[in-house]
Amino acid sequence: MSEMPQDGAEIKDTDIVFDCPHCGKSLAIDYRGAGLMIPCTDCGKNVQVPIPEGMEITDVDISDEEKEARIVNLRRSITASEMRIKQLEAEVEELTVRRDQLEKVRAENMFRFGTILEKTGSIQKSLEEIAVALHRISESAK
Ligand SMILES: [Zn+2]
């Protein structure tokens, strides 16, 4: 985990040092890269450079090109977030349908259970009547 970032390159005080969330490789990037999506030098997956706490975007003197790159990256993240929201909404809908189905099944089972209880009750009653009748028969046989 604590490898030297970017072999040979020196880490400056102004660099943001963080670990790749995919492969754990320690990465260092100039502070002006805060918030940008960059490919990991090790695994090649896109990682977002963390924005150090207390750092304001206005602290950073960035060129118009960098600003534009940032805007494009932000738009990309917004689009990705919007897609994720749509996915989650679809999942919520699916789960709602599933819950309604389960609710229906539960209501049906409750009804069946009630019917079974009723039948059990009348069987119990018949058994008692039979017991009473048998008792009478055995009494009269004496
Ligand atoms: Zn990586």
Q: What would you say this structure looks like, in words?
A:
The protein has one helix at 64-141; strands spanning 15-19, 26-30, 37-39, 46-48. By secondary structure, it is mainly α. It has two domains: 1-60, no CATH class; 63-142. It is rod-shaped and about 115 Å long. Zinc ion binds at residues 20, 22-23, 25, 40, 42-43, 45. Zinc ion is lined by residues 20, 22-23, 25, 40, 42-43, 45.
Brief synopsis:
The chain is mainly alpha-helical and 142 residues long. The protein contains one helix and four strands; from the N terminus they run E-E-E-E-H.
What's the structural blueprint in terms of helices and strands?
Elements (H helix, E strand, L loop, with lengths): L14 E5 L6 E5 L6 E3 L6 E3 L15 H78 L1
Antiparallel strand pairs: 1-2, 3-4
The structure holds zinc ion.
Zinc ion (ZN) binds next to loops.
Q: Work out the oligomeric state of the chains in this entry.
A: single chain
Helix/strand order, N-terminal first: EEEEH
Number of helices: 1
Give the overall silhouette.
rod-shaped
Characterize the largest beta sheet: strand count, sense, and whether it forms a barrel: 2 strands, antiparallel
- End-to-end separation in angstroms reads 95 Å
Rounded mean pLDDT is 86
Indicate how many domains the architecture comprises.
2
- Judged by helices, strands and strand pairing, the structural class is mainly alpha
- Strand-residue fraction? 5-15%
Number of distinct beta strands: 4
Say which molecules are bound, naming each kind only once. zinc ion
Q: How much is the radius of gyration in Å?
A: 36 Å
> Biggest sheet, strands in spatial order?
1-2
Provide the helix percentage: 40-55%
**Low-pLDDT windows of residues:** 1-5
